[in-house]
């Protein structure tokens, strides 16, 4: 797996795309798109680790793009970046698991860099997971199975210790 973060930033404002690329091109592999449609093409053709989208865009709003990306690329980490504080959009994005973070424009470069690094670390963790666990019931079953395995190992160790103690007396 490539250790450099692959970031796609989607924004309909050309100046923001230019500023983003200029700020982060030395740290990350940067892709930019000026619409959700353009972003979907980039997503289909590249291994994007972190998707950052502006909310207010003509056509498809950022939250819809992030929702679609979640379905197709579940390991990818999504960030909503917007100049507007739309509580309902934020609530929907958080409650439905569409986003990792919500950032208000104008962004603080240092803060955004740290958030992207955190997002990439989460992406790496998601990708390296041996057994992906998609939902709560699967997680519960997985953890119960792991507990059973540990209980079996503990029972074996207890038996070995008892045999060892019995052999000494």
Molecular structure report:
The relative contact order is 0.12. β4, α4 and β5 (101-104) form a beta-alpha-beta unit. The mean pLDDT is 85. The protein has 169 residues and is an alpha/beta fold. The chain contains 6 helices and 5 strands, in the order βαβαβαβαβαα. The longest helix is centred in the last third of the chain and has 33 residues, at 136-168. It has helices at 14-24, 36-45, 62-72, 87-95, 109-128, 136-168, and strands spanning 6-10, 29-33, 50-54, 77-82, 101-104. The chain has a 5-stranded parallel beta sheet with strand order 2-1-3-4-5, with helices on both faces. The chain folds into 2 domains: 6-128, Response regulator (Rossmann fold), CATH 3.40.50; 131-169.
List the SSEs and their pairings:
Elements: E1 6-10, H1 14-24, E2 29-33, H2 36-45, E3 50-54, H3 62-72, E4 77-82, H4 87-95, E5 101-104, H5 109-128, H6 136-168
Parallel strand pairs: 1-2, 1-3, 3-4, 4-5
């Amino acid at each position: 797996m490539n250790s450099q973060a692959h970031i796609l930033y989607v924004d309909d404002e050309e100046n923001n795309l230019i500023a983003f690329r200029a700020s982060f091109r030395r740290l990350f592999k940067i892709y930019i798109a000026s619409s959700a449609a353009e972003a979907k093409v980039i997503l289909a053709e590249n291994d994007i680790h972190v998707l950052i989208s502006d909310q207010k865009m003509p056509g498809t709003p950022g939250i819809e793009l992030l929702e679609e990306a979640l379905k197709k690329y579940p390991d990818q980490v999504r960030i909503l970046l917007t100049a507007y504080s739309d509580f309902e959009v934020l609530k929907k994005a958080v409650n439905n698991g569409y986003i990792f973070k919500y950032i208000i424009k104008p962004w603080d470069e240092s803060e955004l860099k740290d958030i992207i690094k955190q997002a990439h670390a989460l992406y790496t963790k998601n990708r390296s997971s041996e057994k992906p666990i998609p939902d709560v019931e699967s997680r519960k079953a997985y953890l119960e199975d792991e507990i059973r395995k540990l209980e079996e190992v503990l029972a074996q160790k207890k038996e070995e210790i008892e045999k060892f103690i019995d052999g000494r007396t």
